[in-house]
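User: Hey, my collaborator sent me this sequence without any context and asked if I could get a structure. I don't really work with proteins. Can you help?
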Amino acid sequence: MKFPNFKESILFENDDIIVVNKPPFISSLDEREGGELSMLRLAKQYSSDAQVCHRLDKETSGCLIIAKNPAAYRLVSMQFERRKVKKVYHAVVNGTHQFNNLDVNLPILNLGNKNVAISRQEGKAAETIFNSIKFYKNYTLVECQPITGRMHQIRIHLASQRAAIAGDDMYGGQPVLLSGIKRGYRLGKDQEELPIMKRFALHAKEVTFKINDMDEITVSAPYPKDFATLLKLLDKFDL
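Assistant: No problem. I've predicted the 3D structure and written it out in C-alpha cell form, which is a compact way to encode the shape of the chain:
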C-alpha cells in the first residue's frame, strides 16, 4: 500500500498542534506486531516530539489531532478527558433512517482484542447523538456526534439502532455494491463484484477544540476519494 505524504495530509498547523486528514487503512498508533507505518511514526518523522492525542480506527478516515510537544499534548488530552472536544463524524448506513437528535446512551464493555459489547451491567458510559443528513432509497448519510470516546462507539451504537454502517461486517453492515443500486447493472461471466468501498463508510468530518487557553478552532476534513465516490454513486443511482 502507498502511504501518504504526511505534509499533504495536514489540515491545520501551528507551533504546538497539527490536525491531519488521516487516510483509511493506516493505524493511528503503532500496532503491537510492528512493521507497518502508523500516523504516529509519520508524525515523528515530521516533528520529533509528536504525540497522537486520540485514536481513529484503522479503516476510519478524517480529523486526527497530533501534539508537537508535551505541553500541547496535555492541553488536548485534558479536553478529551473532560469531554470538551466536539467531534463530528459522517457515516453511510444501511437502510433509510430518520434520526433527529437521536441520543443513544448505551454503556460499552471492552472485551479485549478489539472487541466490544453493549453491557448495561459492566459497560462504561457511552453516548452518541445522531442526525440524518441525506436519505437514499437503500442508505442514509448520518451525522454522528460522540460525546464520549469508547472503542467502536459510533459503530456499535448505530448497529443497536438497526442502522449498521455500510461495509462494517463486524456489526452486521452490508457493503454497497453497484449491482444493488444501479438498475440493469450486470457483471461479466465469472466476474466477482467488489464493493464500492473496501472498508466501512465512516469519516471523522470535523473537530472543535482549544489550541490554547483562549482560542478555539474548528477543523474540517474533506472526504477521501473512496467516500466521495460512494456518495457520488448513491446520488446518481439510489435517490
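In plain terms: The chain has a mean pLDDT of 94. You can pass these C-alpha cells on to your collaborator as they are.
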